[in-house]
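Before going further, learn to read the protein records used in this course. The integers have meaning only within a learned vocabulary of local backbone shapes. The record below shows the convention in full.
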Amino acid sequence: MNTLRLLMFERHDLQRAVAVNTLLDMGCIDVLQASCGEAALSLLHLHGGVDIVLCDLQTLATDGLCFLSQAREAGLVNAVIICSSIPDELVYTVEQIVRLQGLEWLGNAVRPLVAEELALLLQAYCASGRASQTGIGQPCDSGSEPDDEDILEGIDRQEFCAWFQPKFHLGSGLIQGAEVLLRWQRAQGDMLSPEAFLPAVVQLGLLDKVFFRVFEQGLRLQQFMQAGGNGFNLAFNLDTTQLECPRFVDRIRQVLNKHHAAPASLTFELTETGLLLAPGRCMASMFGLRMLGCNLSMDDFGVGYSSLERLCQLPFNEVKLDGGFIRDFKRNRSVAVIRSVLHFARSLDMQVVVEGIETVAQLRCLQGMGCQLGQGYLYARPMSEAELMTWTFSGDPSIWRAALHPAG
């Protein structure tokens, strides 16, 4: 946490001083402070931005929103923590406002501020990988931003690779499979997540080339994992534009035949926002994948704009519930949403996967509602192919399984 740069944005001098001292006592050594939006924006321009803004709700309600919008547009802030004691319903509303600004929401730190609670929120930000990436609050290496030539060379050198985040059966704690994630391991040693390069890859028309490399890497790993007789399902993320290619399903079929892979062991995830205006060609490809025997999952369900009618129109047999709902599991409204999703999914004969499980309390809540599948940092973080095999076969999973599933 001592590498983070923070801004305490608070109107009241005494409360701001107490909050800053709390952060310094926690080991945060780069803490800025401001009492109004104009001063805060000037500070960010002067210091090159911050990782996180900690903002009092009253300050947010006055000129805070304007400040956050301007700071985000200038690329001067990544994430927000609200410091206030307000009803849960209002916290959720504030969260949506922050997210609509294009900022990462880390949570609400209830007043009076408690160091342990703040530490958990800051650690969650560090664990997400945002703090380790070149950017705000971090030293910038020259040439760290990839351009088109870098991407083309990266493809030629086969630097794009698959990482894996395991999925689990929440009742037994057994590994059910993994979501396959795209990463770019560059020659200079740094690792980039898709946010840093995927838009450029799409613009260059190279998304399928990168995807099928990762797809085959995943299938090779699946063969190895299944050699011992255990099932190991894989989920791959698709972009809607890929489905517009008339030959996409045929290419999937050819690769499956090449690796002797069972279509039923594969799931393709598509975000509901990407499918909002899915053309007929996309729907035809989705139908083709289902007829092939593959599964289709609506990813980040609940955060986009697709209606339940849209879900019924498209050939999904799984929904992946956004982790924001389980993060707010103490709110009655969030629990009601999860219960409703589980109920209608069962009615439609759909599987439900919950992502973003980070605490035992969240796990217990999901178990109590009968949710069967999930993933999250509580179980395992994304890892490389070598790390996954070592982690799976070294016996490490039995350690957390005994702790989280004592009756299993």
